[in-house]
Amino acid sequence: MPDRIDPCLALLKPKPPKGSQWAFEVKWDGYRLAAHIEPSGVRILTRGGHDWTDRFPAIAAEARRLPVATAILDGEAVVFDERGRSDFGRLQQSLGGRGGKRMSREAVLMAFDLLYFDGRDLTGTELGARRHLLEGLVPAGGEEAIRLSEEIEADGDVLLRIACEHGLEGIIAKDRNSTYRSGRGGEWLKIKCIQSDGFAIVGYEKSTASFGGIGRLLLAARKGDELVYVGGVGTGFNERSAADLREQMDKLIIAKPAIDTGRKRNAVFVRPELVAEIEYRAWTHDGKLRHASYKGLREEQDTAAVYAVDLALKAG
């Protein structure tokens, strides 16, 4: 049984693909995890390969109850809001914020693939057969800490519209005939209702009227080997997330900005070590984020990549 398998990642596309070989699922908004089940015990690994078994006790306990001797489940850990939508900010708070060490008993693993099963490596097997085995192991429905991410029989365009109307992040399309390949090879595609990516925090503008005293975060993206300013975000905070964020930023204060942010009043600059997950609708003609909203801080263990702005502008 492999010690670890690098995950298959979805390639961002503007529209759903056409053709009967494409299967569709909801795009979950959480942390990518792999649950390794062996007779010796269960391990829960993050996308970057960190062992977070202790952070997700309910998922680990449910994995031990599954009727299988050896397996590797691929899925996304999520926490749902009151409307049944996965909420990245709630997941982060359940873990104690960025760098926190709390256990999340609320998190649920939405399992969408099976990479190893009863002594057999399934990565060379086509998706349709892997899904058939997964559905036998993790039944649809139920309220357990491991649930099946169900395949949805629908036209991709219709499904995307419905997902967006219900406030979901988007949909995933997967080639039923594809084997499991690590990386972003195009076998899996993601189509988003709203763009959501990681941006480096380079400072903030102070405000006495806002949560945590944060009027607006100042953000940067990658351009080649450098960081460039891409505007700010002043919405999406609540009292708790703003307080957590302010505590993290205050440890990183520097006298001069790390990059050129233009003239800013009441600005505090920080070393660009924190990566914020930001929702946004589009880019302005001069390369700034439009209608941006803060979702939370990305963990290093969840590969907190800073978005490449030149790619973003081409995609936009």
Automatic annotation (TrEMBL):
<keyword id="KW-0436">Ligase</keyword>
<protein>
    <recommendedName>
        <fullName>DNA ligase (ATP)</fullName>
        <ecNumber>6.5.1.1</ecNumber>
    </recommendedName>
</protein>
<comment type="similarity">
    <text>Belongs to the ATP-dependent DNA ligase family.</text>
</comment>
<dbReference type="InterPro" id="IPR012340">
    <property type="entry name" value="NA-bd_OB-fold"/>
</dbReference>
<dbReference type="GO" id="GO:0005524">
    <property type="term" value="F:ATP binding"/>
</dbReference>
<dbReference type="InterPro" id="IPR012310">
    <property type="entry name" value="DNA_ligase_ATP-dep_cent"/>
</dbReference>
<dbReference type="Pfam" id="PF01068">
    <property type="entry name" value="DNA_ligase_A_M"/>
</dbReference>
<dbReference type="GO" id="GO:0006310">
    <property type="term" value="P:DNA recombination"/>
</dbReference>
<feature type="domain" description="ATP-dependent DNA ligase family profile">
    <location>
        <begin position="100"/>
        <end position="192"/>
    </location>
</feature>
<dbReference type="InterPro" id="IPR014146">
    <property type="entry name" value="LigD_ligase_dom"/>
</dbReference>
<dbReference type="Pfam" id="PF04679">
    <property type="entry name" value="DNA_ligase_A_C"/>
</dbReference>
<dbReference type="InterPro" id="IPR012309">
    <property type="entry name" value="DNA_ligase_ATP-dep_C"/>
</dbReference>
<dbReference type="GO" id="GO:0003910">
    <property type="term" value="F:DNA ligase (ATP) activity"/>
</dbReference>
<dbReference type="InterPro" id="IPR050191">
    <property type="entry name" value="ATP-dep_DNA_ligase"/>
</dbReference>
<dbReference type="GO" id="GO:0006281">
    <property type="term" value="P:DNA repair"/>
</dbReference>
